[in-house]
Write a structure and sequence with these properties.
- It is a single chain.
- The protein has about 270 residues and is an alpha/beta fold.
- It is built from eight helices and nine strands.
- Strands 1-2-4-5-6-7-8-9 form an eight-stranded mixed beta barrel, surrounded by four helices.
- Helix 7 links the parallel strand 6 and strand 7.
Length: about 270
């Protein structure tokens, strides 16, 4: 009986093993998680990390303190006539998160607020862990985050806060995170002619951007649930909007414009 060459047999087995490895390839990278994205809203993580230490004991009036709010899918459909009757003059509405989530309530909230006369704008919950800043700015604009000079539309806002999915600073060092924000801001400005508003807290900004002073030209929407505005992030001498409470007379978070109604129009017009 003719015996087979063992070296040939070994070569066949080796070839089959290599082919199997080639078919398997490297493990596929897990898709970014958007679990709970509907409940990630401006300040949701700030309240968890920084707490709520009271609200200002100050009465507002249309002349010197303009009341507004911000909402997301977390609130569901909003009763806009009721919000306007309760004193709302402006609102920011969550449109998108990362490059994989559009708020299912955005259309009702964005169009409904406009219909009752509120000055409204859209905001984007940043996910620097899933794609670059320019890509997310384009995604935001494509899903409701644009701007028009009609006097009723605020510039889009970029929500920069604690990562709800993992590392506080999205596994980025301060230099990389500043570059990410710059990419988003530059792309948004190139597409809309407006610098986006930046939403953040001073504590997060210090920790994750190294307290970068690079964005002082962008309107600041500051989150601090306390009796005073407190210290601002580097680069800004004043805030445009102060998110002072996570609940109140209006749906969602409560905000004050830093000035009279004329300033609201100026912020909308640019």
């Amino acid at each position: 009986m003719k015996r087979r060459n063992p070296l040939l047999r070994f070569g066949a087995v080796l070839s089959a093993g290599v082919a199997g490895l080639a078919l398997c390839g490297p493990p596929a990278e897990a898709a970014p998680s958007y679990a709970g994205a509907d409940d990630n809203f401006a300040g949701s993580q700030i309240a968890k990390h920084e707490g709520v230490d009271g609200t200002p004991n100050v009465q507002y009036s249309a002349e010197d303190q303009v009341l507004g709010h911000d909402v997301s899918g977390h609130q569901g459909p909003v009763d806009w006539p009721a919000a306007a009757n309760a004193g709302a003059k402006f609102v920011y509405i969550k449109a998108t998160e990362g490059t994989g989530f559009v708020s299912p309530q955005f259309t009702q909230q964005y169009n409904g607020s406009y219909a009752v006369g509120l000055v409204r704008g859209a905001y984007h919950f940043a996910r620097p862990d899933v794609s670059d800043g320019a890509t997310q700015a384009n995604y935001f604009i494509a899903h409701g985050g644009g701007w028009s000079g009609d006097g009723k539309t605020l510039p889009g806002a970029l929500d920069m806060e604690y990562n709800p999915y993992g590392d506080t600073c999205y596994a980025k060092d301060p230099g990389s995170l500043v570059a990410w924000i710059q990419s988003f801001s530059d792309t948004y400005r190139a597409r809309t002619s407006r610098l986006p508003t930046i939403y953040t807290s001073t504590s997060w900004w210090k920790k994750c951007t190294g307290n970068s002073p690079a964005f002082g030209a962008n309107p600041l929407w500051l989150a601090r649930y306390n009796t005073q505005v407190g210290e601002l992030p580097a680069g800004w001498t004043s805030q445009s909007i102060w998110q002072f409470a996570d609940q109140g007379v209006l749906p969602g978070d409560q905000n004050w414009l830093n000035g009279p109604l004329a300033l609201l129009r100026n912020l909308a017009i640019g």
